[in-house]
Amino acid sequence: MEDPRQEELEEEEVNATTGSFICEVCVESISENKKFKNNNHCIHHFCVICIAKYIETKITDNTAKIKCPGLNCQQVLDPISCREIIPQSIFSKWCDVLCDNYILGFERSYCPNRNCRELVVNECGENLKKSKCPNCEELFCFECKVAWHAGYGCEEGRNMRDENDILFGQAC
Fold first, then answer.
1. 79 — phi, psi (to 5°)?
2. Which residue has the higher pLDDT, 14 or 48?
3. Is 2 part of a structural domain of the chain?
4. Are strands 139-141 and 20-22 parallel, antiparallel or unpaired?
5. Phi–psi pair at 2, nearest 5 degrees
């Protein structure tokens, strides 16, 4: 009976001379030109087809930071390195998921202007009240998320609103 490690070494020698490698996912011998290179951030060997399917699965699960599928590898896949091997729709969704993931760490509000509704993010972490929408440039109260109530606190501003206003029921 032959030593299994000896078989692996022989296979590696054959792959080195033929310009191929064994994909760690599908365990197929793949041509070197079909090898995924994560901007050379890690040493794991995957074919572009397996990585593309892996990325698509992770994006479907709304995973923003996709780690290398290598056993115990903590290296994150570089979206730009992956752009050419995945469909444009998957790349766009990945970008959206990355942005959403980034924004979730910040306090945010939507512009109360019914014709705008732009997302406004408090990236500085300051205690915001009077804010200006970057899209429509209308002033609004970031704290209670309604049109700016100049000279009045949020509680007073809430009491002045029209009861028929759909935003009236929102708590400050």
1. -55, -35
2. 48
3. no
4. unpaired
5. -85, 150
